[in-house]
């Protein structure tokens, strides 16, 4: 493959490539195209600065966290008084992998540790790919129930211990489907 065709393959969209003296390739740009590229470059540099700031914020959150890692999670709402009990949805595989961080800050999409009223072990189960999953739940005072699982029993035990300690929950609290 010739150099000219290689350059066209990796060229920026809309930039004309032409042959110069001595067989060397050159780009011919108008003043408007140069200004457009400068504007795009400035926008990319600004976006890079924003992403670096977000990354530094995430790094600080992770450094201050007591526990973090990927868990499979799903959430359910508890039945309100007078409502029928929720349907049995144990056959529905709606577990989503999420990166969870246990810390004192309260960013968006978070649950305050002070809102947690119960933490407990849930029955283990096999996922669709026949992998054994160990599970636990978190119940908030607002009736939201988070069900979490992992293929690592050690990881689940670590999360349960940390949540019980940080939420100051009694280790003898019994759950509807298990006890801790």
Task: Please summarize what this structure is.
Keywords: Coiled coil. This protein is an alpha+beta fold. It has helices spanning 3-9, 31-64, 153-166; strands at 17-19, 25-27, 67-77, 96-102, 116-126, 132-140, 144-150, 174-175, 178-179.
Question: Can you characterise this structure?
Answer:
This protein has 180 residues and is α+β, with helices and mostly antiparallel strands. It has two domains: 3-62; 66-179, Pleckstrin-homology domain (PH domain)/Phosphotyrosine-binding domain (PTB) (PH-domain like). Helix content is 31%, strand content 31%. The protein is built from three helices and nine strands. The protein has a five-stranded antiparallel sheet with strand order 4-3-7-6-5, covered by helices on one side. The chain is elongated and about 75 Å long. It starts with a helix and ends with a strand.
Strands across the major sheet, in which order? 4-3-7-6-5
Largest sheet: 5 strands, antiparallel
Quaternary: single chain
Low-confidence stretches: 171-180
| Number of helices, where a helix is a run of at least 4 consecutive DSSP H or I residues | 3
Number of beta strands:
9
- Averaged pLDDT: 76
> What is the radius of gyration computed over CA atoms, rounded to a whole number of angstroms?
27 Å
Portion in beta strands: 25-35%
Query: How does CATH name the architecture of the largest domain?
Result: Roll
Write the layout of secondary structure elements.
Layout: H1 3-9, E1 17-19, E2 25-27, H2 31-64, E3 67-77, E4 96-102, E5 116-126, E6 132-140, E7 144-150, H3 153-166, E8 174-175, E9 178-179
Antiparallel strand pairs: 1-2, 3-4, 3-7, 5-6, 6-7, 8-9
